[in-house]
Structures are given as C-alpha cells and as structure tokens.
Design a protein that fits this description.
binds heme C, mainly alpha, Cytochrome Bc1 Complex, Chain D, domain 2
Length: 250
Amino acid sequence: MKTLIRAVAVALVATAAFGTAADAGPRDKPAQGKSLGDKDYSWNANGGEKDEALHLKPDLKNGREVYEVCAACHLPEGWGQTDGTFPQLAGQHNKVIIKQLADIRALNRDNPTMYPFALPDQIGGPQAIADVAAYIGTLKMNPEPGYGDGTDLEHGKKLYKENCVRCHGEHGEGNNDKYYPRLESQHYAYLLRQYQWIKEGKRRNANPDMVKQIQTFTDRDTKAVLDYVSRIKPPANLIGVKGWKNPDFQ
Ligand code: HEC
Ligand code: HEC
C-alpha cells in the first residue's frame, strides 16, 4: 500500500504539481460542462456518472482499495491539509462526494492536481465512485481543521445566518439529499478558494442562486463568514480523535 502512496507523491513532486499547478492544466482544454452564462445551463442536471454511481450498491472493500490513491493527497484519515491545499473529505455528505468527483472527472471543476489520478482508467467507472464515496463515509472528521484569523466572527455569524443557513443549514451541516456541502470544520483556506471560484464562475455546475447571492460580498464579508463557519464543531460522533492514524493504510 505504502508504495502506491509514495509513487503518487513522487509523481507530484516531479511535475511540481503542488500549488502553482492550479494555474495550469485542464483549464486550458475546453470544458465539457456548461457554465452559468450558457442558455441551457441547469445546475446539477440529471444524467452521467453521478446518477449511475448513486444507484449502485457500494462495495466497501473495493472503496478502500480505490481510496489508497486518494490518501496520498487527502491523507489516509481523509483529513486533508490545514493550509487548504487538500480539502478534508471525512464527514462530507455521500451525495456531495459523488457529485464533486463526477464534476472533477467531467472537468466542471479545474483540478489539474487530482484530475489524472481520478480518471476511469486509474480507478474505474461509476462503481468505483460509489465504492470510494462509501469508504470516505466511514471516516471521522479532523478535530483540528484550519481556521481564519478569528478577528471578525460576530460579523461572520450575522452574514451566515442571513445568507447561508437556507442551504448550508444552521450549523453548516449541509444537506445530503440536496447536494449542499457540509462547511463546518472544513479547512478555512479551502473554503476561501472555493468560494472565490464559485463567485467568479470558475467552478462550473455550482448552484446559480448561491453564485448570484454572494456577488455583493466584500473581501471582509467573505473572510468573516467562512472563518465563522469553519469554526463550528459538528456533532461529537462525527469527529475523530486527535492524532488518530487510519489502520487501513499503516
Ligand atoms: C494529487 C493529489 C490528489 C489526489 C491523488 C486526489 N485528490 Fe481529491 N482533491 C485534490 C485537490 C487539490 C482538491 C481541491 C481542488 C480545488 O481546489 O478545487 C481535491 C478535491 C476533491 C474533492 C472535492 C471536495 C469538496 O469538498 O468539494 C473530492 C470529492 C475529492 N477530491 C475526492 C478524491 C478522491 C475520491 C480521490 C481518489 C480517487 C482523490 N480525491 C485523489 C487533490 C487530490
Ligand atoms: C441556494 C443555496 C445556497 C446558498 C444560499 C449558499 N450556498 Fe454555498 N453551496 C451551495 C451548493 C449547492 C454548493 C455546492 C456547489 C456544487 O454543486 O458544486 C455550495 C458550495 C459552497 C462552498 C464550497 C464547499 C466545498 O466543499 O467545496 C462554499 C465555501 C460555500 N458554498 C459557502 C457558502 C456561504 C458562505 C454562503 C452564504 C454567504 C453560501 N454558500 C450560500 C448552495 C448554496
């Protein structure tokens, strides 16, 4: 198992994929997804791999095998990096994981770092998506995610209540059935990047109501609201123990 993780790490260093690669790669190819400006854009349209994966019975054992390659970046625990380079996957809703993975594969999201490792010839088709999403569903969340500077939390709370609760829920818990991501305890720096990309339309297939709503947010608003929500603790039964190492990959 470790060999594969190391191989991915080596490939990453070799292509200097960390950091700057986010500005190169698949974005230069024509995106297959529709974007907000398109006449026939419809958020989260039915069809494609997402729907196929949702209707398959997951095989956890295979999910664990598929996850091996993911572990190289998202870590064996699914906790990601506090600097936001790699998001935390643990605790994210099953349908969100499936939709986002399908979106990444369909180039609806620009993710040149992960893209080559997530393709069907690497991990398999919709069944692999269902399997790995189910495996991720077994992982408890990072007890110490990355936060913002904590200086503007009252402002953040007010904005959150007024603008975000309707979809992301009172505590940032999201909604599996509606594909609304859990935001609580996700790394602040990751949320910040995604929020910006959603605002600019760079993340295609994002909810158009949210895109519209956040256009008037200033930098101060954005930082405050995301710092606030990243600090909310999910229910204790979802959180892992500090220092836990996933025995599946030891
Ligand atoms: C080479 C590093 C790398 C590997 C390997 C990798 N990922 Fe990722 N993944 C990323 C990065 C970077 C992002 C965030 C991209 C961005 O900022 O939009 C991401 C984002 C995601 C997201 C979106 C999370 C969200 O909150 O929206 C999902 C889901 C995901 N990865 C699942 C997987 C799965 C499943 C695998 C294994 C099959 C995998 N990743 C392998 C680097 C990687
Ligand atoms: C109309 C519903 C709606 C509203 C209102 C909304 N969002 Fe979202 N948000 C979504 C959906 C849906 C996604 C997932 C996008 C996708 O489908 O790819 C999302 C994604 C995000 C993400 C990226 C999360 C990730 O894991 O990649 C962030 C950050 C976010 N929202 C923050 C906010 C904040 C902060 C507010 C309030 C200012 C807000 N949203 C208001 C529906 C909404």
